[in-house]
Design a protein that fits this description.
Two copies of one chain form a homodimer. With 513 residues, the first copy, chain A, is of the alpha/beta class. The first copy, chain A, contains 14 helices and 24 strands. In chain A, helix 2 crosses helix 3 and helix 10 packs across helix 11. The first copy, chain A, is globular, with a radius of gyration of 23 Å. At the A-B interface, helix 1, strand 8 and helix 7 of A face helix 1, strand 8 and helix 7 of B.
């Protein structure tokens, strides 16, 4: 059989040749959109590779991006990865100080930034002398350091793919919601195989006829692989820029006839609230794929009913490229379950010491994972991130049902120790979150002189609901000493940079006792 | 990222762990079926590996199979491939003499044969002294050389997958309809990537909820990859044994609630004729995937109307593992088109000398192909099967339309030279085949003293139709000198061992002039 290196440039090559008019569409702020076909996008990405070569970027060098989901960001991605350099995506919701620490660690040579993030980018540049050059994209008006004039004056003659498939292509730091951020290096091979996995009919099932809205950010965990999957099949890739509020998304979905939306639950809450307020409908939308955080059953039902879509739940991690499990389309949707692993991902439940549980079904354990797109070693670390048998400990607690469906039951680090016994906040959150009035619920431990820690409940609600009504469903469902000591109403639940509930902030503000 | 070798044993490991009760079902002759879950099938396949080890089979050794599509054949496949040996599938429709030549070339050490093929297997054994042992499967009654007692007395403790992903896993000889049979070696990596490709939503889109009927034989081109794809997603794999007549297939589809059927057009003709005769319906069947031969538009319409299914056309070759293009489900079905290539397959049209045509769309050319599951070199050959740029010349003539759909327009070797000019029989066959009365049509060249060759038409029809009615639609559609000189009615079109029209036999019987 022929030699065929699994490198990501092949996805854009294929799209340019076989779906040249397949589009990448970027929402403009204030309305309207920019659009480009895959053939033209490839031509521009090749020019960007030449620009980077001209700036001294070589194979294996890191190039950082600080940008929203946009056509220009996709072009820069393929330019960096196609030439064999490594795309280090930076999360604009972190502080300049945090980002400086990351680019110093990665030794990035060039920084690419969206125009509105240029001030932050310059702050990073001033403190990270290893970065030789700033390139600004996504600018609506002339500005300093623009990439665009350099593209115009360069020829599309870069050579892509001239390296091993095991070469690194990307670098992303974990969100740090549960610990210090650590770098995860993706390879061409791992991301290629991840793409083929999510394209399966039983996973994300993205087809050339789909218009896929990637609300999940490209700056975190590769936007769940969509910027690779869409060109691989020639699907229309719809990018929201930085506007991910309900009204902006509704406008974009309607204008671009989006069929599949992908994002964290809070994004869809915003969309549903907007539609409920305006009475608008989005008939093109068929499916929503959620992940990144547990889905409250009430929110799931509200989304399915109001939008007339099927919700597919999923579970993943930065360390998993990021997809771990997805609920197949034919399965009945259940908010509590996160779907099953497709071939290439394997799951194991262990005890707290990492020993495999004798039974793997219908019991709770510590979740470990293994596979073609699962981390072996964090960036810059000498020791593996896996155990001796090659399993990566996720830090999640989980059950797997008889049909193989994964249910994340908590984070080991979120567990609350009260009177020497463990309380799992996720179980309490699931019960309270099932109430129709509850949009978001979080349980954290508060310092307690007598018990060490005691659980408290923080909720974002819609409509009137008493403390007693919030806690009543817990009686008989969890042990009586698990019931939170206090309830706090928040106008807006604080969210971390990835859209997950920011428990670190909640603990800082409410956990002191 | 973690090391993860792309080896085929992983598909069955995944099925056994995540879909242990997913079934492989084999039709029994005379009715009824045998069934087994993937977990039990894996256990048995591991035992077969141990049996083969006990017979001295080592990594890289060839083990030949001469068998119908059955559970036992699937077990033997995974046993051979899982341990790193090479499964050399033999086509029972060839002669013992032809098969002896093949196993002598492959140096097979063991031969596994279905019980009803044991006499042929013994004939091969007598003339191929390299084969040390015969193992008989699929036996309804006690018989000599049975594998079953050896399975029962062995433990499932073989080690699978302990070899490089580039190791060979299978060997299949081309059908020889257009030349001497040549061996094609598949590797674990190429077949693994082929499987991930066909599982895409835009290709075969097989889901864990499907029941897939593999009428395409395992002895040729891996039954189009279905014995790998079904366990990879946990789909039910339904195997017809040797009975592929319309009545047997109808019974099996109804009993097993088959959702997707895969086979050559003539198989579905038999099914439709049976249903038309009996008035039966098959409500579970949703899709039929055809390939291996062009689909007459009339037959396609008959199938879609009578069965209430969507037909997906496709194109492939033994040398392509075998899938090349498949019509995505969302596309309107058109008999003349064979679908588009998914990423991992690329197509090129050249002139007769192999130079790329300047235009690649809406022109006819010689088809070349490149990809991860495309042949590099025939078994035992020193020279590559590809050109200097790595393209494999298929021998097919083809057009590609503006949307990237492939249309095979003929075989270069089938072209008829009349008066120094070329006639393409496939174009004539397409016009005549579109008549509702025509089930199968073939045009071959007959020796002619004056013109060198002249085309003649051979047809299998249903209902009355005059010669003139058969030829009339050609007028104005093809040059007047392309119109066949004679029409022959055949009660049954001769089919080659793979179900394609046997043009070699037609030329022998009718081409002499």
């Amino acid at each position: 059989m022929q030699a065929f290196a699994l490198t990501l440039d092949k996805f854009l090559d294929h799209a340019a040749k076989w779906r040249p008019n397949g589009q990448v569409v970027t929402a403009r702020e204030g309305g309207g959109a920019d659009r480009i076909g895959y053939a033209d996008l490839r031509d521009r990405a090749l020019r960007v590779s030449s620009v980077l070569e001209g700036l001294g970027v070589e194979k294996g060098d890191r190039v950082a991006t600080l940008a929203w989901n946009s056509q220009a960001h996709v072009e820069v991605w393929f330019a960096i990865m196609g030439m064999g350099a490594v795309c280090h995506t930076l999360n604009p919701r972190l502080t300049a100080e945090q980002l400086v620490a990351m680019v110093v660690q990665s030794e990035a040579k060039v920084l690419v930034a969206s125009a509105d993030l240029a001030p932050m980018a310059r702050e990073i540049l001033a403190r990270a002398p290893g970065i030789a050059r700033l390139l600004v994209i996504d600018a609506a008006a002339p500005a300093e350091d623009l990439l665009e004039p350099l593209i115009a004056s360069t020829r599309p003659d870069a050579i892509w793919g001239d390296f091993a498939e095991t070469a690194p292509c990307g670098l992303c730091f974990t969100s740090g919601t549960t610990g210090a951020p650590k770098g995860v290096t993706y390879t061409h091979r791992s991301s290629y195989l991840h793409t083929l996995r999510i394209l399966q009919a039983d996973v994300m099932a993205i087809s050339g006829g789909d218009a896929v809205l990637a609300v999940v950010p490209m700056f975190h965990a590769n936007a769940w692989g969509l910027p690779f999957a869409a060109p691989a099949v020639g699907a229309k890739l719809v990018l929201p820029g930085r506007q991910t509020d309900g009204a902006s998304l509704a406008r974009l979905i309607a204008a671009e006839a989006v069929t599949v939306g992908v994002g964290v639950p809070t994004v869809w809450l915003g969309l549903v609230e907007h539609l409920e307020a305006t009475g608008a409908d989005l008939p093109s939308l068929k499916r929503i794929i959620v992940g990144g955080a547990p889905m409250a059953p009430a929110l799931m039902e509200r989304i399915e009913t109001r939008l007339g879509v099927t919700v597919q739940t999923s579970w993943g991690m930065t360390e998993l490229s990021p997809s771990g499990t997805v609920a197949p389309l034919g399965d009945p949707s259940r908010a509590a379950l996160s779907g099953r692993p497709a071939v290439g991902v394997d799951l194991l439940l262990t005890d707290a010491d990492g020993l495999a549980l004798p039974e793997q079904r219908e019991v709770e354990g510590h979740l470990r994972v293994r596979g073609a797109a699962v981390i072996q070693r964090y960036f810059g670390h000498d020791t593996p991130a896996t155990d001796a048998d090659g399993w990566f400990p996720t830090g999640d607690l989980a059950r797997i049902d008889a049909d193989g469906n994964l249910m994340i039951t908590g984070r080991a680090k979120d567990l609350i120790k009260s009177g020497g016994e463990w309380i799992n906040p996720a179980e309490i959150e699931a019960v309270v979150g099932a109430l129709p009035e509850v949009s978001l619920a979080a349980v954290i431990g508060r310092s307690d002189a007598k018990w060490g820690e005691r659980p408290i409940l923080l909720v974002e609600t819609q409509g009137e609901v008493s403390d007693e009504a919030l806690l009543a469903p817990l009686r008989g469902r969890v042990a009586s000493w698990w019931i939170p000591d206090a309830v706090y109403r928040l106008a807006r639940m604080p969210l971390a940079s990835t859209g997950k509930i920011d428990k670190i902030r909640l603990r800082t503000e409410y956990g002191g006792g």
